[in-house]
Amino acid sequence: MAPMANPAPPVEKMEVDEPAKAEEKETPKDLNAIAVESGFCHGITLNTNLLLFVLLWKSVAIDIKEHCALLDKGDVHFVGRVLQVVHKTRKQCNAEVLHRLLSSQLTSPSLHKDALLAWVPSPRPTRKTASPSAESELYIHLLVLLYLVDGNRLDDAKKCAEMLIARADALDKRSLDPMVAKAIFYLALIYERQHKLHELGCFLNSRLRTATLRHQRESQAVLIYTLLRCYLINKQFQSAAKLVSKVTFPEGASNNDLARFLYYQGRIKALQLDYTAAAGYFLQAMRKAPQEAAIGFKQNVQKWVIVIGLLQFEKDETLTLIVRLRQNVIKTAVKQISLAYSRITIKDIAKKLCMSNEVETEYMVAKAIADGAIDAVITCDTKDGARFMRSSETVNVYTTTEPQLHFDSRIRYCLELHNQAVKALRFPPKNKCDELEFAKEMADEDDEDF
């Protein structure tokens, strides 16, 4: 009897062999879970924004506290250094930062502090620290003044500036003079925006006498050019000229103050028909003005320079250069046309350049080709005889030696800069006493080893 064969193992069904199940209806998600999830994401966004705000506020607060630490030293040089960067601090200040600074720095309760806090909205309470110095107190006061001026709250800003000046007079410290000068400048600006600058003349004159007697250079410089501006706005030209002849501008004033003073001197000389002296003052004001800022001031000075130059009626011998302007403009336009078109007729070029004569246009194109300004040729069409300009194909610049020449010039510049830096190195002077002591120590160590 034949042996019985092993029973075949049962065939397992694969997933693909199973019949497709009917699609189950998708159960709706829990609405509370969705709300919690969306609220969680929204909370993350709010927390991120809050964290960014806290980090920004901490950086601004650290900068201002560093400024206050410098001001606490009571040195005039440190006060000037802090006021040089006050325009950057001004952009970073807001109501929250100022209120926290007022609450934490100005600890002693007084009418002065209450008035400042009234002008700034109150956030959460802050931690108090030790009472600041007079310089730090007025610096924070100045930041509040700038905040009010930027917010166009002129009435509050005027009270704030007057309070700052009165507070500085009560403290009576020489190191506070730069801040008083800033306060006087913004007080005059506020009066000018309110069209009441004529009411400030007596105050400015009395302050100028006091600043001159006390040798307060910053206040003296600001008061001089503010008075000149007051006289010029009110059309009191004789008073302005008399003031310039009687006062002496302080030598230690900043370049910005000196530029303003030279500008007003130039305007006075121009009204007196002394155009040569006026042009000299305006050019000096341009040189003293900051290079990257004060764009409006430089534009105004340049306008006066041009008008004075026209009023002088002097031969500048620039006719030859002026005649060349037309040719240079046409040459530049032809160069742009050659880059834009591979082939264009002379007639179309004349239309683009607004030239009525095609012969003159062809001459200008030929001159540009001869000068090497464009890489093109003038040819004639064999069908209708129309002449046109055909630009040459652009050559790959990397197949030429031009990149090598550029790299060579840059490397030469870097090497020259390195050589100059090495030559400019300074070493501390050698002290012979230190060398003798070092030699003695070495001798003693040798004796001990022996």
Automatic annotation (TrEMBL):
Single GO term (MF): enzyme regulator activity
Keywords per UniProt: Proteasome
Composition bias type Pro residues, residue spans: 1-10
Chain intervals with Basic and acidic residues compositional bias: 12-28
One GO cellular component term noted in the UniProt record for this chain: proteasome regulatory particle, lid subcomplex
Superkingdom: Eukaryota
SUPFAM superfamilies: HCP-like (SSF81901), Winged helix' DNA-binding domain (SSF46785)
Family from the record: Belongs to the proteasome subunit S3 family.
Annotated region described as Disordered, given as residue ranges: 1-28
Name under which the protein is recorded: PCI domain-containing protein
